[in-house]
């Protein structure tokens, strides 16, 4: 007898899976919609979260440490200190602010008139230091090291602000992760249930196949395909839903970003999110089917 | 050769469906299993075909104990048999041809070759024209012939048929006997349960009678 190849066995099972999906199109549609929502919703949240984090983490909002030199040191010495800190491992950037420049800037403000009456420039040379790492403890450590430096008068940093931004970003990430995990679990439960119903509906057929010598692998194959296809379908619909939501939300968020001078709102490419959703749908669908089958076979051993 | 030793099946109740049955069935035999309703005929068939595990005793084929096969080996064991049994009815949602193809597809025969052999089998039982119909649209006699086609299509060494002529009129019943006789002539071991011994009188080589789960008569 001619044994069929692996692929022929799979296509036969795939055909049966498609038959099962097509047998109750309304049920398939409803399940697909539920699963697609479970995929699209956390993805949209993650997209918004990533965009907002990007805003806060972007240029102009990074923590800055302002360092004032002592009045007693001269320009050469100040520049030497600036150069030394530029090469420091914990520092991203250093900008030297000469006292003349600081004064010029001050003169443009409301305080200008009062300052103009002073005989000498009262301001010291200064530098702004941008740390490489923004975590509060890293910033605080850098601040301490700067304060210990000879020739430096005062070190100022808005640590509360740094902590606020970091807290927000961390909370946002955690909420997105929790939602994703929760919805993934929901999706697993839903495919588990869908396959379970199919198995119960096919109980007589399965017992006949068993009597005729079918292995668990043969019996389970169409249902594995079913779970995978159902997940894939949900992934595609979910990706489409997500794409639509993102397309709908991008203009207002872009506008908001522009108003705050933050550049566009573009956390990650839309196609990457779509691919991730399709993949997640297929994997979760296959996993749900596998769990359902294993439980079914264990119970009917 | 199939050997049952001290074979017993007690269902919860308890119902002793089969009690200490000793029976050896040589290869190629045409065995008739008789007995009143509830005597244990179907239970015996289910034990032999590996659809049920014995409470005591053993079934062995060619000296291999079926109980030792385990979950992995059992499906392959079951494929030696052709079944006409209410545990394995025709699937109502699949066509006659698809039903008959099942034992071949399960055994991994290529679809193309499977359906070539299905066509031959259906021709032999006179159902060539009904291949693409669903079983419920067939008459009782036609359904029984389709079941026989499915039981022989993979050329099993043993055919087990539980009352294959029940509910058939005389002509249809004789047609079924004629088919079973033809397959037996090709070397297949036949184990048939029936309430109509006369129908099989000309073809049976041995007749056993069960009563309340016990073997009470065995005539060759
Ligand atoms: N799954 C089961 N659970 C409980 N009792 C059962 C089960 N199957 C069979 N029995 C009992 O076992 C006994 C033997 O049944 P079996 O079906 O083997 O008889 P039979 O000889 O095939 O009868 P018939 O000629 O009516 O088909 C009967 O008393 C029946 O009620
Ligand atoms: Mg019976």
Q: How would you characterize the largest beta sheet of chain A?
A: 4 strands, antiparallel
Overall mean confidence score, pLDDT of chain B: 91
* Main sheet characteristics of chain B: 6 strands, mixed
Helix-strand topology string of chain B: EEEHEEHEHHHEHEHEE
**Count of helical stretches of chain B:** 7
Cα-based radius of gyration of chain B, to the nearest Å: 17 Å
- Chemical compounds bound to the protein: adenosine-5'-triphosphate, magnesium ion
Spans of chain A of 5+ residues with little confidence (pLDDT < 50)? none
What portion of residues of chain A belong to β-strands? 5-15%
How are the strands of the largest sheet of chain A arranged?
Answer: 2-3-1-4
N-to-C span of chain A: 30 Å
Shape assignment of chain A: elongated
The counted number of beta strands of chain B is 10
In terms of quaternary structure, the protein is heterodimer
Tally of alpha and pi helices of chain A: 10
Per DSSP E runs of 2 or more residues, the count of β-strands of chain A stands at 4
Low-pLDDT residue intervals, each spanning 5 or more residues of chain B:
none
Structural class of chain A: alpha+beta
Which strand order spans the largest sheet of chain B, edge to edge or round the barrel? 6-7-8-3-9-10
Could you explain the architecture of this structure?
The complex is a heterodimer of chains A (301) and B (220). Chain A is of the alpha+beta class. Chain A folds into two domains: 10-58 and 164-299, no CATH class; 64-157, Alpha-Beta Plaits, CATH 3.30.70.3040. Helices cover 71% and strands 8% of the residues of chain A. In chain A, helix 2 (25-57) packs antiparallel against helix 7, helix 7 packs antiparallel against helix 9 and helix 9 (216-259) runs antiparallel to helix 10. The longest helix of chain A has 44 residues, at 216-259. The mean pLDDT of chain A is 83. Chain B has 220 residues and is an alpha/beta fold. In chain B, 34% of the residues lie in helices and 28% in strands. Chain B has helices at 41-48, 70-78, 96-106, 111-124, 140-152, 170-185, 197-200, and strands at residues 2-11, 15-25, 30-35, 56-61, 64-65, 81-84, 158-162, 189-193, 206-211, 214-219. The two termini of chain B are 16 Å apart. In chain B, the strands form two sheets. In chain B, strands 6-7-8-3-9-10 form a six-stranded mixed sheet, sandwiched between helices. In chain B, strands 2-1-4-5 form a four-stranded antiparallel sheet, with helices on one face. At the A-B interface, helix 1 and helix 8 of A face helix 2, helix 3 and helix 4 of B. Bound molecules: adenosine-5'-triphosphate (ATP) and magnesium ion. The site of adenosine-5'-triphosphate (ATP) has 11 residues of chain B, from strand 2 and helix 1. The site of adenosine-5'-triphosphate has 11 residues of chain B, from strand 2 and helix 1.
């Amino acid at each position: 007898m001619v044994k069929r190849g692996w692929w022929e066995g799979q296509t036969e099972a795939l055909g049966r899976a498609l038959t099962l999906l097509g047998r109750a199109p309304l049920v398939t549609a409803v399940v697909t919609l539920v699963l697609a929502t479970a995929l699209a919703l956390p993805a949209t949240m993650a997209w918004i979260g990533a965009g907002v984090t990007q805003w806060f983490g972007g240029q102009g909002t990074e923590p800055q440490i302002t360092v004032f030199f002592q009045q007693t040191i001269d320009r050469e010495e100040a520049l030497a200190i600036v150069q030394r800190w530029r090469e420091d491992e914990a520092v991203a950037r250093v900008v030297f602010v000469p006292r003349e420049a600081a004064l010029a800037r001050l003169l443009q403000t409301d305080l200008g008139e009062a300052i103009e009456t002073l005989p000498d420039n009262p301001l010291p040379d200064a530098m702004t230091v941008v740390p490489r790492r923004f975590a509060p403890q890293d910033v605080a450590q850098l601040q301490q090291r700067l304060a210990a430096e000879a020739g430096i008068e005062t070190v100022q940093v808005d640590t509360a602000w740094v902590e606020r931004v970091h807290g927000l970003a961390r909370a946002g990430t955690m909420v997105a992760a929790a939602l994703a995990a929760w919805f993934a679990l929901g999706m697993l439960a839903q495919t588990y249930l869908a396959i379970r119903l199919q198995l119960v509906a096919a109980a007589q057929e399965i017992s006949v196949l068993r009597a005729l010598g079918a292995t668990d692998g043969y019996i389970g194959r169409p249902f594995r395909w079913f779970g995978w296809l159902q997940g894939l379908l949900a992934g595609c619909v979910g990706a489409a839903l997500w794409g639509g939501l993102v397309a709908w939300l991008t203009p207002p968020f872009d506008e908001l970003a522009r108003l705050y001078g933050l550049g566009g709102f573009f956390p990650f490419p839309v196609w990457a999110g779509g691919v991730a959703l399709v993949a997640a749908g297929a994997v979760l669908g296959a996993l749900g089917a596998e769990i359902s089958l294993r439980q079914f076979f264990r119970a009917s051993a | 050769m199939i050997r049952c030793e001290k074979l017993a099946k007690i269902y919860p109740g308890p119902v002793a469906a089969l009690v200490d049955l000793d029976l050896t069935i040589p290869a190629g035999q045409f065995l008739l299993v008789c007995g009143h309703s509830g005597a244990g005929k179907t239970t015996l068939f289910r034990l032999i075909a590996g659809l049920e595990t014995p409470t005591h005793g053993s079934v062995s084929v060619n000296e291999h104990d079926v109980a030792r096969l385990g979950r992995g080996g059992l499906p392959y064991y079951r494929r030696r048999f052709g079944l006409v049994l209410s545990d394995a009815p025709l699937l109502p949602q699949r066509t006659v041809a698809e039903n008959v193809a099942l034992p071949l597809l399960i055994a991994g025969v290529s679809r193309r070759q499977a359906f070539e052999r299905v066509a031959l089998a259906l021709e032999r039982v006179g159902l060539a024209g009904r291949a693409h119909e669903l079983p419920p649209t067939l008459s009782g006699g036609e359904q029984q012939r389709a079941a026989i086609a499915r039981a022989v299509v993979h050329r099993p060494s043993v055919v087990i048929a539980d009352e294959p002529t029940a509910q058939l009129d005389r002509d249809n019943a004789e047609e079924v006997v004629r088919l079973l006789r033809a397959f037996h002539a090709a070397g297949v071991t036949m184990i048939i349960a029936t309430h109509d011994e006369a129908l099989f009188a000309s073809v049976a080589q041995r007749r056993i009678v069960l009563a309340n789960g016990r073997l009470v008569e065995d005539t060759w």
